[in-house]
Design brief:
The chain has about 900 residues and is an alpha+beta fold. Strand 21 and strand 22 form a beta hairpin. The longest helix has 21 residues.
């Protein structure tokens, strides 16, 4: 049967991008396609089978049009299946254009918006499979597509007339990996996927649902294009697992905090849809749904698929359901047997079958789609209303009210009690100095324009409109060159613009007054412009400038070779793409030097660390290529610069990973590939084998690599080697005090460099680095973190003062924003050198912190000699999901500096 369906691909592929097929007499059922029903115990359908089935349905049904939306990292095709009535399918482009005009709102007045809303069709996105080990959502997606191309009941026919459904499998690579791993066992009782050897999406695994505002991954970019550049759905429903213990499913609404950037209508509409979801389950006798306090999910962080929609005026839905192809159990949690507003219908403990979860998912889909049908015109009009509100706020003086402004309001009052003088409303909350910007200008003459363009491309991928200056211009006395970029806030996606440029002001969220903090769902501070180190100016007043819209993703402008000298080239270290050029030069056997002092080139003075590249035919060709492709500017000089210089050498990098995969190591791997560093992935067995200096100059340990109780624990369990394919057995093992640490010590003593990032600094402490942790108490290997009531920074941006003359900080500004996520801070002893410290007083630039004063003056970047080698400790998370493009330079510098500074270099 599967081969017969695959053959149908050839026939159906002609339908992609063309009209839907005429309805045939028979629509192939899942049972006919796969030999079993969706949701049968011990059965998983893989993506290859689903892809073939999609083509079959597209060839049989006039309710469906199959659309290719791009390729995955591993080269699979990503699809979206548009399902609606045959009449709607025939006019998809027309209804998509209505959705676009209403979502973007520009040039559409209220009268036209009401006309378009009456004519248009609601667009609802329903997906599955983003987190591939959460197997209910992708399997339920198969059942849902079949249901909606075959349903004949009155509710379904009404929905199909009113709604265009976009069914989207999100992680095809992971879907195949997980399903194939589970089904590899012939004995159903032995089937499992807990022993997967690698991350279920290349590089990022579970973090694929934290990539939505950066949009680094191919799959994320494909989805963002559909959501915010092509189809503009008013509802985005992202299916997930698992449910909280003792329940079947978590559904909206979500707990506070409320992000202060998006339109309140996004939240009130969310509550409406959520009520319909809960009502449907209760009405169908399907108990066990919880909400709000039932889990930690909030609407604060912008990085998830469903949450980025709030910043784009759509309704983002998340459900977390129980279920497994191997039968499981609903646990008995005493508190969850008592009905309450957030769990109105408790469920009894019981054996739970996979198909039950599929049925719940289909019912929830129905609830959402029925709501969309009954409120079609309101959904369409409300997305226009929110976009129109955003445009209006960007064209006038406007203010967001955040916790810091409320504290200022209270401080300005001399009254006691809950109320204050009403005159303070305008004086404090409408303080002219605290206005929201009308626009942001990104100057074209900043030192690292390619990074600014990478930031702007992230905005463009998420539907933000960007303009470019056709010629020089001035605003409020500041002059900007032609080619500078402007991001206006008078656009529909203003909430997203503000969230990417402005600090997040997270509330002081305690479990109870005077108690410990309530754990946030994810990072509390993440401002992308600050993490990437983009230079920008806020424009608070109306302005005029010679601007032209940027039509699509921006190509890095060609750089310049200045001067006519023949001796060689000098390039500013501040441009991050200089690392790409350095790696290309070293790979070609060409010398590269870092100048230790400032370098004067014509009228310019370059900070320490400038690259000196002696001229040769090979180096000249590589420099000219980098100028053309990477946007670098090179100074061609007649003589070598004076002063001391550090000769770089080709580096042999070992990136340490583990069986099952580390997400931080995966993000690091992606970054190393983007900047063309040569590296090899190394597993604990290779570390334990010793003789590391023979193969490596640098070993890199990423933030989440080590268990929390390292070196006393070994982390999560691993499978019996005999139960996994032989190719994966060398990946097994753990970093241990007994076997691994002696080999790492030998490596460093022999001249090797060990680099730890973020929480991997536990390794440096275990190896005896001359540092003391300021944020824990106790002696020896068993130390206790400070209580959260005294110190708690769960993902926020902090200021860091660096020494630009230190090789580890070459190319960086004197003050840098770094991501701090329950990391450490140190005092340094002996011959350890501190390259960066937290300022005194410490400065939180975005997010929430308790006790940041404990960081004042603490060491954050330490170079600790160890024999002939060294340990370089980068205490903050300088990688942070590839968002921290400014601070990752600390890692890149460390990779070159350690080997270059070793004896004999």
């Amino acid at each position: 049967m599967f081969n017969r369906i695959c053959a149908a691909i050839v026939i159906a592929s002609a339908l992609l991008g063309g009209p839907a097929a005429a309805q045939t007499d028979h629509i192939t059922s899942p049972h006919e396609a796969f030999g079993h029903d969706v949701g049968d115990d011990y059965q998983l359908i893989n993506y290859r089978q689903f892809e073939a089935y999609l083509h079959t349905l597209a060839s049989q049904s006039d309710r469906m049009k199959l659309m290719e939306i791009g390729k995955t990292t591993e080269g699979r095709t990503q699809y979206v299946a548009a399902v609606s009535s045959p009449a709607n399918i025939a006019r998809l482009d027309h209804y998509r254009d209505i959705a676009r005009r209403l979502a973007k709102a520009e040039g559409v007045d209220e009268a036209e918006a009401r006309t378009l809303s009456a004519e248009g069709k609601a667009v609802v996105w329903i997906d599955g499979g983003l987190h591939a080990t959460e197997t209910v959502p992708p399997q339920a997606l198969i059942a849902a597509v079949h249901e909606w191309v075959t349903a004949q009941d009155p509710e379904a026919l009404r929905v199909l007339d009113d709604v265009i459904i976009l069914f989207a499998p999100l992680n095809p690579d992971g879907w195949d990996l997980v399903s194939d791993w589970y089904m590899r066992e012939s004995d159903p009782e032995k089937r499992e996927f807990a022993s997967l050897p690698r991350l279920y999406q290349a590089y990022v695994g579970h973090d694929n649902n934290r990539d939505y505002y950066l949009s680094a991954m191919t799959e994320t970019t494909n989805v963002n294009r559909m959501l915010f550049r092509e189809w503009f759905p008013q509802i985005v429903y992202n299916h997930h697992q698992p449910a909280p213990a003792g329940t079947v499913v978590f559904m909206p609404p979500f707990r506070d905090p409320f992000n202060y950037n998006y339109d309140p209508l996004a939240m009130t509409a969310l509550s409406e849809v959520a009520a319909a979801m809960h009502n449907r389950l209760v009405g169908e006798g399907k108990p066990g749904a919880t909400m709000r306090s039932g889990a930690r999910y909030s609407t604060w962080n912008n990085g998830m698929e469903r949450s980025i929609t709030y910043f784009h005026n759509s309704i983002g839905l998340l459900t977390e359901i129980t279920g497994h192809p191997t039968p499981s159990r609903i646990a008995l949690v005493p508190d969850n047997q008592l009905p309450r507003n957030d769990l109105p219908a408790p469920i009894a403990p019981q054996t739970w079958r996979f198909r039950q979860s599929i049925d719940y998912s289909l019912s929830i889909n129905r609830a959402v789609l029925d709501y969309a049908s009954r409120n079609r015109d309101r959904l369409l009009f409300n997305i226009w209303r929110m976009g129109s509100n955003a445009i209006a706020r960007g064209e006038t003086d406007s203010w967001r009210v955040t916790p810091t402004r409320i504290e200022a309001l209270k401080a300005a009052s001399s009254q006691t009690g809950r109320t204050v003088d009403p005159a303070l409303y305008d004086k404090v909350l409408h303080d002219p100095a605290q206005r929201d910007p009308r626009a942001y200008v990104i100057p074209a003459d900043q030192a690292d324009l390619p990074t600014a363009i990478a930031f702007l491309n992230s905005l463009i991928k998420t539907g933000v409109d960007v303009d470019r200056a056709a010629r020089d211009f001035s605003i409020a006395g500041a002059s900007y060159p032609a080619g500078s970029f402007v991001v206006r806030t008078n656009q529909a996606y203003r909430p997203h613009v503000l969230d990417m440029f402005e600090p997040q002001d997270h509330p002081h969220d305690l479990q109870y007054p005077g108690g410990p903090p309530a754990l946030p769902y994810d990072a509390t501070g993440y401002t992308l412009a600050l993490q990437m180190g983009v230079k920008f100016d806020r424009i608070l007043d109306a302005f005029e400038a010679p601007l032209e819209p940027v039509p699509d993703l921006i190509t890095v402008p060609v750089g310049q070779v200045r001067g006519q000298g023949k001796a060689g080239f000098i390039i500013d270290h501040a441009a991050i793409n200089s690392f790409i050029l350095t790696n290309r030069l070293l790979k070609a056997g060409q010398p590269v030097f870092w100048q230790k002092a400032e370098v004067r080139v014509g009228a310019r003075t370059l900070a320490p660390g400038a690259l000196w590249i002696p001229a040769s035919d090979v180096s000249r060709a590589l420099v000219e290529q980098a100028v053309a492709e990477l946007g670098l500017n090179a100074e061609a000089v007649a003589r070598a610069p004076g002063g001391d210089a550090m000769a770089l050498k080709p580096v042999r990098i070992g990136l340490v990973d583990r069986y099952g995969g580390s997400m931080s190591a995966g993000w690091t791997r992606w970054l190393l590939e983007q900047f063309e560093f040569p590296f090899e992935v190394v597993y604990p067995q290779r570390l334990d084998a010793g003789d590391l200096k023979k193969d490596f100059d640098v070993l890199v340990f990423a933030p989440d690599l080590l268990p929390g109780d390292f070196p006393n624990g070994t982390g999560r369990g691993q499978p019996d080697p005999e139960t996994i394919p032989e190719a994966y057995r060398p990946w097994l093992g753990s970093i241990t005090q007994e076997h691994t640490l002696p080999q790492l010590s030998t490596f460093a003593e022999a001249g090797g460099t060990i680099v730890t990032a973020g929480s991997a600094d536990k390794l440096a402490l275990a190896l005896g680095a001359p540092i003391d942790d300021l944020l824990s108490t106790g002696n020896g290997g068993r130390r206790t973190p400070l209580p959260s009531t005294e110190f708690f920074i769960p993902g926020a941006l902090l200021a860091l003062d660096v020494d630009p003359a230190d090789p580890l900080a070459y190319g960086l500004p004197a003050r840098l924003n770094v991501f701090f996520d329950e990391n450490a801070a140190f005092t340094a002893r002996g011959d350890a050198r501190v390259a960066a410290r937290y300022p005194s007083p410490a400065v939180v630039t975005s997010g929430w912190a308790i006790g940041p004063e404990k960081l004042a003056g603490a060491a954050a970047v330490v170079d600790a000699p160890m024999g002939q080698g060294r340990m370089i400790i980068l205490a903050p998370d300088v990688i942070n999901r590839a968002q921290a493009r400014a601070s990752v330079r600390l890692l890149f510098n460390a990779l070159f500096y350690g080997p270059a500074a070793a004896p004999g270099s």
